[in-house]
Amino acid sequence: MKRIVILVLLGVLAFVVLLAVFTPASVVVSKAQLPPGLQVQDAQGTLWNGSARATWQTPMGPVTLDHIEWHYVPSQLFNGRVAYDLQASAPQLQVRGRMTHGAQGVEGFDLSVKGDASALVSLFPWAARYQPQGDVTITAPYLTWNEQEIRGDASIDWKNARAALPDLRSLGTYHAELHGTGGPANVTVTTVSGEYPIRAQGTATPQAVQLSGTAGGQDFAFRVP
């Protein structure tokens, strides 16, 4: 009897694996309960490996990704996680990392975002008035978040920054650090080089960012949305 049970379990596992390998991604997306505001189009491939386009309606505006690729990581099942290696792109923007879902909720590992600051306007529409330009790199060894809090660390580098203040001008190079242990994450911004020094600190949640400090020798307070 014990042997029969084991064989049945192996058969069920094989069936699940076959579903993941051969079920079209378009079928999976059409039946999946996606996060609120997320729309997926042109899904191709399977649940195991595939690609698509997506639009996500966020509190800061819509985020459009022209191309997303995913590759299932079966080894993470032994850690109690469903994991995918992801790559995504939009004009002048590249995103990659590993996303998992487990007991801690959604988690990101080895996250990397690279692109021009102008491309980030699609993520943060409020920044459009400043016409930001320059190379932006965001790295995060580990991040997990929900609607209320952020846990983990991230660093942001903005090189050869340019913005309209109100006229378009060169600003310098800046570095920011995010550190979250639950609740709002702490954020610090410092100047690496340039003639427009910025020093600020504040907090961030998935819903809002709040900073205060000095910029160009003047005090400022900043909050979005």
Task: Describe the protein in words.
The protein has 225 residues and is mainly beta. The protein has one domain. Helix content is 12%, strand content 59%. It is built from 2 helices and 13 strands. The protein has helices spanning 2-22, 25-31; strands at 38-45, 49-58, 61-72, 82-90, 93-102, 105-116, 133-145, 150-164, 168-181, 185-193, 198-204, 209-215, 218-224. The protein has a 13-stranded antiparallel beta sheet with strand order 1-2-3-4-5-6-7-8-9-10-11-12-13. Strand 10 and strand 11 (198-204) form a beta hairpin.
Tell me roughly what share of residues is in helical segments: 10-25%
Quaternary structure type: single chain
Low-pLDDT residue spans: 1-19
Give the structural class: mainly beta
Q: Compute the number of strand runs.
A: 13
- What value does the Rg take, in angstroms? 21 Å
Overall average residue pLDDT? 79
How many domains make up the coordinates? 1
Distance between the termini: 62 Å
**Helix count, per DSSP?**
2
Taken from the alpha-carbon principal axes, the silhouette is globular
Report the β-strand fraction as a percent range.
over 45%
Largest sheet, spatial ordering of strands: 1-2-3-4-5-6-7-8-9-10-11-12-13
Largest sheet features: 13 strands, antiparallel
One letter per element, helices H and strands E, the order comes to HHEEEEEEEEEEEEE
Brief descriptors of the model:
225 residues, mainly beta, 13-stranded antiparallel sheet
Provide a brief overview of the structure:
The protein contains 2 helices and 13 strands; from the N terminus they run ααβββββββββββββ. With 225 residues, it is mainly beta.
